[in-house]
Fold this sequence. Notes:
about 190 residues, five-stranded mixed sheet, alpha+beta, Aminopeptidase
Amino acid sequence: MYVRGKDPADLAAGYEELLEVEASGWKGAHGSSIRRRPWYEAFYRDLLGRLVRDGHCEVRSLRAEGRCIAAGFWVYTGRGCVLLKCGYDESYAQASPGRLLTHKGLEWACDDPGVDFVSLIGDAPWLRHWNPETRVRQRAYIPLRPVSGRALVAAMRLRYGLVRSLVREVKAWWRKRDDATRVRRGRDSE
């Protein structure tokens, strides 16, 4: 059975099920579930609280045998719908509950006249099943305070710019080294 939690009580219960289902599998074991990171959980709880007031989110779930086997946190942004976080009970993996729920979520979005696009956020292999259009993500740093903010943004740009350029230089050096080694080996064998 598919369930759409829209009102505050349903959203709160659905969100708790999402946390439980997401933490029950590999995300919990690898420490990447929301529950395993307190600051992450605080962020999502705050986000949920803000979005509930404005009616900009849903927790959608798939239930079987009286319990939640997959859940997703969907957010409405203007004319778009975003699958922000999802998880499933791995004991039902053969039935692909995450895919089933995502498919139903996409159907609901297509039936909603207020939704023009859906974002699945991410590049996980299972998302490619729907052949989404992919877009390059970019990082931006925006200073919030006049002086200290600008200094921090400059430091971040410098840090990441330097790291990227150093990585490129090391890779280029490594390729040249390997090419020179291959050429030498080729001459030595003649």
